[in-house]
Task: inverse folding
């Protein structure tokens, strides 16, 4: 079936079987391999993308759900639209060593951006609770939590400008 | 030079840009022209005779290109998956080493054992055909636990391995230990289990193989921590592919923790199959497949006894362990519970006599091999639990008994009774630092506050020492290693003075691209951004043993340091010629070659340029070019150590253990990049906390089914399981590595399980609890509290 949606700011139309998972569609058909697949039970969170502004695990979503929707993947996350700058959350993860092997990182970032957008005054407990659906095996989470707090603060500051 | 970023600085990581923007290059991201899909058919039974396989329906399924089984492997005369270590018993009898065929032959020995490989045009078609493969199994009883496996009458995995015992191994002076026990004022005893773990790097394993008929060359892309070792083991010992015809690439790898440091049958099967089908094949494991095929870790059952004099001094330590090997011997399998375990049973203490017996046992489970820490967390757990038990029984304070037995700083180098000689350390300094950092003196106030909420609070200590930086090859050879354990590095200086380093270690999260660039930047005085590190490709990197055992900086960094020294030495010759001075008068500092005592100077870039444009150059005595290679074989292991203190709160209503504070003071030697070291400590600690509180691989005895076979049944630590950790380093320098480094990748995982469990036992000690097995889940604690039949509400 034909599916039309906005992908990282661009109108996109694809032909896909209705049973195609969005995570597969992105990786195999659209060659956007930043969305990772780390499990088969929707536990790990490496595949989180934003569907109409909300974080979703793309391995739980079938392609027809995209029709008419707006999808943002890690490849589309950036600072000012059209700029080559990284998003403040990406900058915060680099600054605070919030990643090691990088595999969970795209999902962590997409979840973190959504968390910060939803609640401007995030506490450490909010962040830890909010990251429950994203597993990282490398960092012990400490620097991820610090990164998300800092990234959220930077997003707030940018909003205020 | 500007932008020199050297040792001790924390520049942001070079590797981060690609990972933050979704532009990493993991094996599963790679596509090759004409690529097909491969799927493994795995045994659903723990133990069965393989009576026959009917391929016809699978072969007739749409899109199927090939169906391969153990019979095809046999027909092609291929080798068995090799074990890299051969251990022997006390009489020198070698371990039993049954063949480990890459596809099962005659029998299957664990759930997940590979039975067939199906290649099709698409993954979906391969899955459908795999379902159609008719495998005739005669199911046999399985045995999964070590205690059960050695009992008379237990199911036998191999005809020629009586009682499933691979090796009855020992270390230490048994007679000296026995005589010390006779003189002891007190003997403390402890039985414990070290729970089986599954490493779960977030990237599942994957491989792509391609054969080029035009050149007779193979390329294997694989999620490996050691591509050169895979090339050697697979090419030379399994598939008979000449080394120069085989390229192994391990690109970005999403975490390893040991799980990816073995040569797996999947790699051999897919490479062999690629030549048969003459098209590239891709296989990507699902997480569920990883659970039944990634090598597992730990799984010990241990009885330990500590002999003490009346003052609490340790006289002798005796440990008897049954270690689970699973269904076959994996690459490092038998080395882990023996050579990486027993030599660390001295810990940071002066125990004069130690004896350890380890029975290495086959069971119907996934093969067990190294997982972060590998043997050393097990040793630390036995010893540090034992110390707490002894302290409690003798009425001596837990910190005091440790102090009385600690090796003083000035006693280093310290020869233990179990092979290893520690070169440097300061356990007392680490302990003192940790006591302050953990605010132990106010623990009583915090405990009272918990009690007022009806919670039990406990404090747990663990000191540790580990042997890492694997390894001095000659020493390892005596212990049974069948390969060398050196490392290699090439420093290629370009005509413009920029530098590319080719190194045999593998970066899969550790930040090597940053740390190694700092070493080069400091030593050569070149800008940090002008250094790139290449790894993970046997066609680009000369050789290497890979990354495991906290060896990359210790052994690889030393090779890199040596290679930069060679570059400087050659640069001095070139500079002497250009500056018309004697070579001995040339000094190199901060990126400049200068004639001592003068202002005559050539920059590093000028020397590099001269080396590649040798118009004015001593060609008669010196080759052009500026590229040097070094191999480094360490003279000893390195011995990081430290002290960890955990503080927990137990809710008696639910049995839930909450880790409320965690402090670690570690001696990792010289710290190159403090930010990266801290990250390694954090990650290591949480993996150890995972073992202590959450993680457990559980098999069903009899059927051999893995009950904890997904992320829904096997509990991985999440962000909200952890408090903010308080980590610090208290370093003494390694005396035999070029930069004084000791390694930091595994220390967190080694120190933490004992600290956490000692804290849990402390919290419950007023109820008569003396030991808790890992993981200390709410279920386990709640049951323990019910059985204690004591009032559970704290007043």
Result:
């Amino acid at each position: 079936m034909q599916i039309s949606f906005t992908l990282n700011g661009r109108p996109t139309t694809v032909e896909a079987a209705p049973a195609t998972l969005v995570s597969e569609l992105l990786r195999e058909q659209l060659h956007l391999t930043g969305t990772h697949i780390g499990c088969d039970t929707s536990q790990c969170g490496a595949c989180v993308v934003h569907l109409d502004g909300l974080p979703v695990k793309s391995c739980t979503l079938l392609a027809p759900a995209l029709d008419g929707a707006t999808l943002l993947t890690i490849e589309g996350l950036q600072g000012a639209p059209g700029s080559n700058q990284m998003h403040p959350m990406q900058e915060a993860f680099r600054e605070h060593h919030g990643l090691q092997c990088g595999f969970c990182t795209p999902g962590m970032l997409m979840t973190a951006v959504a968390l910060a957008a939803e609640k401007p005054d995030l506490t450490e407990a909010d962040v830890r609770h909010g990251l429950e659906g994203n597993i990282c095996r490398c960092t012990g989470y400490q620097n991820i939590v610090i990164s998300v707090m800092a990234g959220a603060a930077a997003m707030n500051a940018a909003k205020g400008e | 030079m500007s932008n020199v970023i050297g040792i001790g600085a924390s520049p942001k990581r070079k590797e981060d840009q690609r990972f933050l923007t979704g532009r990493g290059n993991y094996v599963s991201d790679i596509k090759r022209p004409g690529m097909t899909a491969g799927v493994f058919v795995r045994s659903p039974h723990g133990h069965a005779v393989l009576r026959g396989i009917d391929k016809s329906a699978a072969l007739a399924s749409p899109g199927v290109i090939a169906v391969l089984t153990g019979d095809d492997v046999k027909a092609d005369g291929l080798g068995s998956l090799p074990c890299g270590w051969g251990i022997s018993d006390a009489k020198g009898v070698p371990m039993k080493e049954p063949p480990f065929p890459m596809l099962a032959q005659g029998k299957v020995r664990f759930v997940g054992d590979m039975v067939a490989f199906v290649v099709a045009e698409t993954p979906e078609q391969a899955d459908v055909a795999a379902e159609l493969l008719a495998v005739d199994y005669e199911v046999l009883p399985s045995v999964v636990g070590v205690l059960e496996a050695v009992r008379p009458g237990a199911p036998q995995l191999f005809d020629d391995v009586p009682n499933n015992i691979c090796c009855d191994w020992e270390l230490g002076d048994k007679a000296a230990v026995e005589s010390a026990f006779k003189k002891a004022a007190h003997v403390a005893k402890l039985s414990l289990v070290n729970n089986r773990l599954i490493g779960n790097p977030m990237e599942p394993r994957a491989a792509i193989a391609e054969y080029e008929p035009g050149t007779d060359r193979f390329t294997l892309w694989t999620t490996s921590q050691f591509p050169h070792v895979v090339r050697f083991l697979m090419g030379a010992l399994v598939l008979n592919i000449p080394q120069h015809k085989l390229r192994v690439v391990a690109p970005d790898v999403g975490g390893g923790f040991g799980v990816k440091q073995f040569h797996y049958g999947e790699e051999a099967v897919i490479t062999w199959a690629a030549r048969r089908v003459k098209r590239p094949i891709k296989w990507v494991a699902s997480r569920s497949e990883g659970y039944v095929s990634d090598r597992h870790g730990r799984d010990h059952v241990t009885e330990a006894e500590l002999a003490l004099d009346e003052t609490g001094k340790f006289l002798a330590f005796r440990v008897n362990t049954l270690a689970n090997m699973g269904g076959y011997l994996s690459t490092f399998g038998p080395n882990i519970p023996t050579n990486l375990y027993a030599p660390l049973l001295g810990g940071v203490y002066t125990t004069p006599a130690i004896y350890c017996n380890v029975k290495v046992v086959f069971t119907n489970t996934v093969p067990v091999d190294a997982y972060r820490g590998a043997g050393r967390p097990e040793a630390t757990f036995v010893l540090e639990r034992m110390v707490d038990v002894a302290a409690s029984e003798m009425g001596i304070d837990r910190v005091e008994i440790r102090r009385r037995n600690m090796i003083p700083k000035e006693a280093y180098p310290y020869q233990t009774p179990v092979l290893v000689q520690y070169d440097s350390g300061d356990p007392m300094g680490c302990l003192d630092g940790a006591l302050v950092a953990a605010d132990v003196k106010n623990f009583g106030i915090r405990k009272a506050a918990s009690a007022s909420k009806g919670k039990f609070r406990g404090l747990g200590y663990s000191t540790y020492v580990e042997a890492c930086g694997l390894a001095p090859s000659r020493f390892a050879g005596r212990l049974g290693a069948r390969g060398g354990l050196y490392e290699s590095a090439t420093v290629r200086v370009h005509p413009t003075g920029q530098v590319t380093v080719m190194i045999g270690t593998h970066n899969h999260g550790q930040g090597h691209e940053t740390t190694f660039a700092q070493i080069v930047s400091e030593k050569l005085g070149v800008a940090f951004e002008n250094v790139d590190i290449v790894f993970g490709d046997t066609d680009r990197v000369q050789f290497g043993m890979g990354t495991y055992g906290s060896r990359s900086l210790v052994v690889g960094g030393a090779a890199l340091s040596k290679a930069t020294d060679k570059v400087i030495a050659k640069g001095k010759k070139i500079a002497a010629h250009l500056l018309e001075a004697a070579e001995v008068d040339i000094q190199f500092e901060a990126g400049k070659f200068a004639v001592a005592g003068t202002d005559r100077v050539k920059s590093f870039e000028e020397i590099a340029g001269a080396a590649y444009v040798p118009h004015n150059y001593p060609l008669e005595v010196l080759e052009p070019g500026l590229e040097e290679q070094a191999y480094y074989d360490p003279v000893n292991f390195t011995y990081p150590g430290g002290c960890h203190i955990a503080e927990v709160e137990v809710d008696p209503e639910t049995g839930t253990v909450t880790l409320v504070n965690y402090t670690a003071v570690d001696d990792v030697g010289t710290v190159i990049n403090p930010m990266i070291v801290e990250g390694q400590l954090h990650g290591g600690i949480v993996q150890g906390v995972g073992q202590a509180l959450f993680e457990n691989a559980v098999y069903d005895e009899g059927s051999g089914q893995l009950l904890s076979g997904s992320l829904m049944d096997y509990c991985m630590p999440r962000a909200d399981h952890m408090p903010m950790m308080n980590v610090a380093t208290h370093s003494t320098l390694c005396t035999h590595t070029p930069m004084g480094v000791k390694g930091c990748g595994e220390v967190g995982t080694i120190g933490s399980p004992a600290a956490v469990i000692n804290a849990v036992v402390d919290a419950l000690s007023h109820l008569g609890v003396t030991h808790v097995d890992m993981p200390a889940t709410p279920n386990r604690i709640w049951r323990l509290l019910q059985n204690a039949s004591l009032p559970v509400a704290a007043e």
Helices of chain A lie at 22-29, 88-95, 105-118, 124-130, 142-160. The radius of gyration of chain A is 15 Å.
